Amino acid sequence: MNARDALLSRACGQNWPFGPLLAALNLPATAAVLDIGAGEGELLKNLRRRGHTGPLVGLDVHPGPGVQSGGAEALLFADAHFDATLLVRTLLHVTNPQRAVAQAIRVLNPGGMLVVAAQGAAHLAGFWALFDPPAAESADTLTERLLVPWPCERLDLVIPAVLEPEMVRLLAASYDLPAVNVSAALPDRLHLAVFRLIC
């Protein structure tokens, strides 16, 4: 788990974002799952710890141990190969998002599930207000716009979090923001927008 996710997991008392996401998806235990942009494979490890027995494949351009090397825009799998394909906090980091989604759909079995997740507009809103950042389009809005050709169901996972002063300092450093003096715990929210398409 990366340092920021570990920090946010402490702040909300859950394994962020994997615990809330996997609970919401409720994937069948035997489903063949492809995690595109898997990084260190943390989501798949969490899925296995939840009792998943089906095949799990992670793919990333900079793969960690147990994750295959490869890009989202050219999946080297046969058509109709997986029951679920996941693009979690990944779609906005690929060169051609539309092609990545088309590829993720191509490798799905009939009735399979595509899941695309991005940080929502409410994610750490209290924290970001400390820095008065310039207004920008949120990751969930950008993602939703990219998914227009594919009618998806949207699910917003919003989890209360409490950022202790030291957490605020560490979080600011993780974003390369200037240090900010906070003397009391900061109530905030974590927000993951999940877009789901059954093919």
UniProtKB/TrEMBL annotation:
A Pfam family this protein belongs to? Answer: Methyltransf_11
- Where does the record place the Methyltransferase type domain? 34-116
Q: Which keywords fit this entry according to its UniProt record?
A: Methyltransferase, Transferase
Name its GO BP terms in alphabetical order.
methylation
Coiled-coil annotation reads none
Single GO term (MF): methyltransferase activity
**Keyword Protease listed:** no
Top-rank taxon, per record? Bacteria
Output this protein's name: Methyltransferase domain-containing protein
